[in-house]
Each structure stands twice: as structure tokens, then as C-alpha cells.
Amino acid sequence: MTDRTITLSATGQQLACKSGHRNLLEVFEHHQVEVEYQCREGYCGSCRMKLVRGTVEYSEKPLAFVAEGDVLPCCCLPVGDIEVEF
Questions:
Q1: Per-residue model confidence (pLDDT) at position 68
Q2: How far apart are the first and last CA of the chain?
Q3: Which stretches of the chain are DSSP H helices?
Q4: Residues 6+ apart with CB under 8 A from 3
Q5: Distance between alpha carbon 79 and the CA centroid of its chain, in Å?
Q6: Local structure of 69: helix, strand or coil
Q7: What is the C-alpha separation between 81 and 54, in angstroms, rounded?
Q8: For the chain, what is the mean pLDDT?
Q9: Is the CB of residue 42 less than 8 Å from the CB of residue 75?
Q10: Which residues form a coiled coil (predicted)?
Q11: Residue 20: pLDDT band by 50, 70, 90 thresholds?
Q12: Which of 21, 13, 30 lies closest to 86 in space, CA to CA?
């Protein structure tokens, strides 16, 4: 798996998603980006954020409702380069 780039829309900061990361939340933690979260399993939806550009895939379908254009970073990984807003 090649590295993917996550761009934060508010600042333009770009984060590298490496093959060892299990989910997007781990990428944020690795780069010391503060993200609200609770369960880390896709149950609560507190980490919900907007997917501005790109595609993600979920390891398992989250139990929390995910609206069109939103993602739960605790249980997904980018398919390619993405841009998020939170």
C-alpha cells in the first residue's frame, strides 16, 4: 500500500497516511492533530467530519449513522488522497 495524503481544509496541512495506520484517527494522532472522539469503534459518531474530496473505506460498517459526505475517522482509511474538514 502506498502512502496517501490527508489534507486538512481549514489549514491546508498535509498528513501522511502510512501502511501501518489502522484508521484515519491513528493518522491524526500520529501527527498530533486534535480530533474529538469517544468510542474508537464507529458506535457513537463523535469523531464525525466532512469528507471534502476523495474516498474512504470502512473496515466494518459503522453502527453510527454516517450522512452522505461525512466520515468516521475511527474506523475508516482513505482509498487515495483525501481532504477533510472538521
A1: 95
A2: 26
A3: 24-30
A4: 16, 17, 18, 19
A5: 11
A6: coil
A7: 6
A8: 95
A9: yes
A10: none
A11: very high
A12: 13
